[in-house]
Amino acid sequence: MKTIESIAKTLKGKKVILRLDLNVPLQKKNITDTNRIDKIIPTLTFLISNKARILIVSHVGRPKGKIIEGLSMSPICEYLQKKLSQKIHLIKTDINNLNKKDLFKNEKENILMLENLRFFNGEEENDILFAKQLASFGDLYVNDAFSCSHRKHASVYSITKFIPSYAGIQLSSEIGALRNITKNIVRPITCIIGGSKISTKINVIKNLISKFDNLIFVGGMANNILKYKKFPIGKSVFEENCENIVEDIFVLSKKGNCKLIFPTDVCVGKNLNDNGNIKRIDEVLKDDIILDIGPKTINILNTTIEETKTILWNGPAGYFENINFRKGSFEIAKKIVEKNKKNEIYSVVGGGDTVAALNNFGLTKYFNFVSTAGGAFLEFLEGKELPGIKALE
């Protein structure tokens, strides 16, 4: 891929169509989590410092081709203005009727933003004419939305057919981080994986199991393993009819010489607001809910992390929203941070809940790479080709 940094000297005065993922949660037009916006500031700062003129394109929510005022880019535009200390003009004109001559008419305007791309059917339908129309607004295109790059949408895929196209700073760093845990691996390498549904991540597990030295199951994912091993899990979250999937995991791990680790003790409660009790995995009662890993399991995980050079973490160890069930996730994070500060580990974290847990602990900045990409993150780990990346290549 060609990167935007490789053409820094030629950017002055160029009109850059910048595809970002500004799909942040909105509550009555208030942004409740600014992570995705904050992460793309370096690309915007880079373009501003190189005197480019920027046209930001993005989406919010799922309006399905309809104009929904509550999903306007307006609050995001306002937030970015404050963050950059730069005036940003939001263009509400129908993109299909917009003319290049209508953009950057004011010499003092260097940053513009188009209204929500998903207000227009052409975006998600990957309409070639819509893509061509978007491309006509600039001199070059930059994709800095890795989290949208698993979608074959007009602003991510087809636009590259009509205009010189480059990878943004954030997208390049995300791909670099993921390649460090899938191709350019420093061993030993460990994966900590959680989540409630094992079927949604089975392809990730199958792809990684032959590459990883250790695979640690936590959270709801571990309950499926415990149930398969005939341990009682009470009223805990688990996925029905996945015994064959779990069996495949054990068979593949043996073939790939990947060590499987799952809890030996747990912290249970009768409900999500309970105080929690530590129990061995053979002591869980019918009305118990497993809500965290126990101290012996934490010690096993810490020992594994201590011997690890590269780590991928996707899924918290427990119901961290209740302080009584946050210890497992906190201790994992603390151990990785301890090793990171000594430059003894390369750490990649992905998944909304895991990122939320790290934010909760105030430890996010101590990890090498924290991904907010969701579906694109998982599809890359599955070994799938992402349309948005392929288009740039």
Topology:
Layout: E1 15-19, E2 26-27, E3 30-31, H1 35-38, H2 41-49, E4 53-57, H3 74-84, E5 89-91, E6 111-114, H4 121-124, H5 128-135, E7 140-143, E8 165-167, H6 169-180, E9 189-193, H7 202-209, E10 214-217, H8 219-228, H9 243-256, E11 259-261, E12 265-269, E13 277-280, E14 289-293, H10 295-306, E15 310-314, H11 327-341, E16 346-350, H12 352-361, E17 369-371, H13 375-382, H14 387-392
Parallel strand pairs: 1-4, 1-7, 4-6, 5-6, 7-8, 9-10, 9-15, 10-11, 15-16, 16-17
Antiparallel strand pairs: 2-3, 12-13, 12-14
Helix pairs in contact: 7-9, 7-13, 10-11
- In DSSP terms (H or I, runs of 4 or more residues), the helix count works out at 14
Strand content: 15-25%
Strand order in the largest sheet: 5-6-4-1-7-8
CATH superfamily of the largest domain: Phosphoglycerate kinase, N-terminal domain
Number of strands: 17
